[in-house]
Amino acid sequence: MAEKNSKIRFGLLDAVILIAVIALVLALVFRYSADKHLFVYDTETYTVTVKATGLQYTTVNMLDSNAKVYLEDGKLIGTFVHAPTVTPMLSYSTTSSGDIIAAYYPDNTLVDIVTDIECELIVNDGMIMTKGGVHVAVGTVIKIHTETVDLDVEIVAVEKNASN
After folding, report:
1. CB 51 within 8 A of CB 113
2. Please, which residues have CB within 8 angstroms of residue 63's CB and are 6 or more apart in sequence?
3. Helix, strand, coil % (nearest 5) of the chain?
4. What is the DSSP letter of 84?
């Protein structure tokens, strides 16, 4: 019987295939980690004014000034700057003749609140966002929570703090 050749040959084609596989793996690693490691953005302090409507009046008692505020995903967005401004909830109705009238809810029922959150945000391509990529712009509705309450709030103002 003939003896089998037990030598492993490594040719040019094998080297090219190996280099291509390594390049592919490096490209995938770079693609999914480049933003985190290569493009580090500086944060700036902003005051974000938010409005929540239709809250039970007792909810206001659970909103502590200086409380930490978290996004829906549990990441810290900032802290309340002060206690919220509370007004009776305003709703609009239309009369049978088509006129629009404003109606305020009675005391101790539903309220609207406005408050400020101090946040560390980044500016990327002219957009203001959290470090986690949540877009922060006037008119945007986001879900936030504190240790005691969950809220859906509309962003009504975004202002860069003067100290920056």
Report:
1. yes
2. 80, 83, 84, 113, 115, 146, 148, 149
3. 20, 45, 35
4. P
Please give the Cα distance from 23 to 135 (Å, whole number): 34
Instruction: Report the distance separating Cα 28 and Cα 9, nearest Å.
Output: 29
Alpha-carbon distance values, 140 to 5, 44, 128, 129, 143 (Å): 71, 20, 12, 12, 10
Q: pTM for this structure?
A: 0.70
Alpha-carbon distance of 4 to 22, in angstroms, equals 32
Contacts of 67 (CB under 8 A, 6+ apart): 79, 80, 146, 147, 148
117/146 Cα distance (integer angstroms): 12
Q: Digits of tens for pLDDT over the chain (164 positions)?
A: 555 666 777 788 888 999 999 999 998 887 776 655 555 677 889 999 999 999 998 888 888 888 999 998 889 999 999 999 999 998 888 989 999 998 888 888 899 999 999 999 988 777 888 888 888 999 999 999 999 999 999 999 999 988 65
